[in-house]
Amino acid sequence: MKNLRNSYLFILVLAFNLSSCKFFEKEDPKPVGEDLNFTKYLAVGNSLTAGYTDGGLYREGQLNAYPYILAQQFKTAGGGDFLQPLFSEQEANGSGYLKLTGFSPAGNPILTPVTTNLALRGGIPLPGGPKLTKYTDVNLQNLGVPGMSVLASGVALYGTLNPYFERLLEDTDVITKTYRNFISNRNHTFFSLWLGGNDVLEFATNGGETKPGNPFSGLTSIADFRENYNRLVEALTANGAKGVVATIPAITAIPFFTTISVASVRALAKAASPQYDVYIRTGSGSTDVRVAQPEDLILLNAVGTIGRMDMQIPHGYTPDNPLLDIEVLDKEEAAEIKARLAAFNNIITEAGKVNSLAVVDMEAAFNGTLVANSILSIYQQGVAQNPAPIRNSLFSVDGIHPTPRGYALIANEFLQAINRQYGTALPLVNPANYRGIAFP
Question: Which GO terms describe its molecular function (predicted)?
Answer without folding.
Answer: phosphatidylcholine lysophospholipase activity
